[in-house]
């Protein structure tokens, strides 16, 4: 094992969208840029994202859409109840369309997803929610193109190399230490450092503590919080970091893991997802209804509602409902929010009984038996079902205002089934306090000289727990904030050189 010293103008830790944008922005200024990446390829958690939020882009203009950045800023600010960083939100939204075009020039092909084609049915008719999704095309090739673009610009990549800590001297961040997969260490001297390590979504214990529940499902995010923790250690403040909760999933079998690969990005290859993604009766772990189930048509609202019930809930159906789905006579639209549903036909009774065997669902010939098997309170469940059946019969839901159309399935013909559903998260969002130029701020709201961040380590774009349901928002923020952070880092280096 060796200990190597490296010199660079700008050090970027992480090569997801944030890091790649930061590195290229700094390289465009003629600076020497070094990127360290813990994985063996670029892309990070951004690789699982599908698109980029931008307003008044050339794609939208070509489609005849008249989009206003002022409207978008007002919507995001209001959604955040003015708890976000208004200057940062404005800077991001006003820079996103140009950054998207810049990303295309780097080698990523983009195609605008029309509002009418949104998989989030609650977004139909709203171009800002459904028509802002600029979807990545041929992502694998796109990332290859981007890496080549950066390397041609002089960016040096060091893969399988993990950030350990930041270095400081005289109140300034002066680089970082890192270690590679073989245990070789690196002492990296840098005039400016951009932390783009992607939050701490891989740290299950930290996420459970932050979200105050152990019931959330992770999708195997690699980010363990190395950069986030290093910034906190060196004077930054955790402003609003939180899990990026994203829809809900059927539970994984506790009996066999042979189908675990089918849960990539939250998707389960089972027709039972049609039940998951239809607004059935939802109850919490005690058996009490907790939300208007039509939130299943919006990924964020669905996840938020389920999180309010501890992140784990049951959807309850009876035999008649299973028969209806087996006969392919479901009168309701099956949501495609989140990973979407598997719409292939199936024998739903057979699938439901297999789920019971796999301990991802519970069965009872009576509601009392179902409650006992699922660990619910029998009196609570009976009262919930009775009230819900009354709402279905009357086509009126005084408790949660579910629409008459969605009040389609009563629960009155045993046997009864309760399927486990769990909120999933794609990583974390939010992070440390920054200004609108992505300088990291200390506890006194002053920039920490030489330290910049963006993406899933930067706070102020969201209100602290939820994130606005605008498609591509987190991914667009990653690229755009990374570009701004890299530009700010380059300006800092240039100013430092002039001053010395």
UniProtKB/TrEMBL annotation:
Residues 9-464 form the FAD-dependent oxidoreductase 2 FAD-binding domain. InterPro entries: FAD-dep_OxRdtase_2_FAD-bd (IPR003953), FAD-oxidoreductase_2 (IPR050315), FAD/NAD-bd_sf (IPR036188), Succ_DH/fumarate_Rdtase_cat_sf (IPR027477). Keywords: FAD, Flavoprotein, Oxidoreductase. Pfam families: FAD_binding_2. One of its GO terms (biological process) is steroid metabolic process. GO terms for molecular function: steroid dehydrogenase activity, acting on the CH-CH group of donors. This is Reductase. Its cofactor is FAD.
């Amino acid at each position: 094992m060796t200990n190597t010293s490296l010199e660079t103008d700008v050090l970027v830790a992480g090569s997801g969208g944030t890091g790649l944008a930061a590195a290229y922005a700094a390289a465009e200024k003629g600076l020497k840029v070094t990127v360290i990446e813990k994985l063996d390829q670029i892309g990070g958690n951004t690789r699982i994202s599908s698109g980029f939020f931008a307003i008044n882009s050339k794609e939208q203009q070509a489609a005849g859409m008249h989009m206003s950045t002022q409207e978008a800023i007002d919507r995001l600010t209001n959604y955040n109840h003015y708890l976000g960083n208004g200057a940062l939100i404005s800077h991001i939204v006003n820079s996103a369309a140009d950054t998207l075009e810049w990303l295309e020039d780097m080698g990523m092909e983009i195609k605008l997803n029309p509002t009418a084609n949104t998989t989030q049915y609650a977004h139909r008719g709203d171009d800002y929610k459904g028509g802002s999704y600029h979807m990545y095309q041929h992502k694998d090739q796109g990332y290859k193109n981007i890496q080549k673009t950066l390397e041609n610009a002089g960016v040096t990549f060091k893969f399988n190399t993990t950030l350990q800590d930041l270095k400081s001297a005289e109140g300034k961040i002066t680089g970082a230490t890192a270690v590679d997969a073989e245990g070789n260490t690196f002492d990296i001297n840098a005039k400016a450092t951009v932390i783009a390590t992607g939050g701490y979504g891989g740290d299950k214990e930290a996420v459970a503590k932050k979200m105050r529940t152990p019931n959330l499902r992770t999708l195997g995010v690699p980010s363990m919080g190395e950069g986030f923790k290093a910034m906190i250690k060196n004077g930054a403040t955790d402003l609003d970091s939180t899990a990026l909760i994203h829809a809900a999933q059927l539970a994984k079998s506790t009996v066999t893991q042979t189908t675990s690969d089918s849960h990539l990005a939250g998707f389960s290859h089972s027709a039972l997802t049609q039940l998951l993604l239809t607004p059935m009766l939802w109850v919490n772990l005690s058996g009490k209804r907790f939300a208007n189930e039509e939130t299943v048509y919006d990924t964020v609202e669905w996840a938020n509602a389920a999180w309010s019930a501890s992140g784990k809930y049951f959807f309850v159906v009876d035999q008649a409902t299973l028969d209806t789905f087996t006969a392919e006579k479901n009168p309701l639209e099956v949501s495609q929010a989140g990973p979407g549903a598997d719409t292939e036909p199936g024998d739903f009774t057979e699938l439901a009984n297999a789920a019971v065997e796999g301990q991802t669902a519970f069965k009872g010939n009576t509601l009392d038996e179902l409650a006992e098997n699922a660990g619910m309170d029998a009196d609570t469940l009976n009262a919930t079902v009775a009230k819900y059946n009354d709402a279905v019969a009357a086509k009126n839901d005084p408790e949660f205002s579910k629409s008459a159309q969605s009040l389609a399935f009563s629960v009155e013909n045993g046997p009864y089934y309760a399927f486990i559903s769990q909120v999933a998260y794609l990583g974390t969002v939010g992070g440390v306090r920054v200004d609108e130029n992505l300088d990291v701020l200390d506890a006194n709201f002053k920039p920490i000289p030489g330290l910049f961040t963006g993406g899933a380590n930067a706070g102020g774009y969201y209100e602290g727990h939820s994130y606005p349901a605008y498609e591509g928002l987190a991914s667009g923020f990653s690229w755009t904030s990374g570009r701004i952070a890299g530009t700010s880092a380059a300006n800092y280096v240039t100013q430092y050189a002039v001053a010395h």
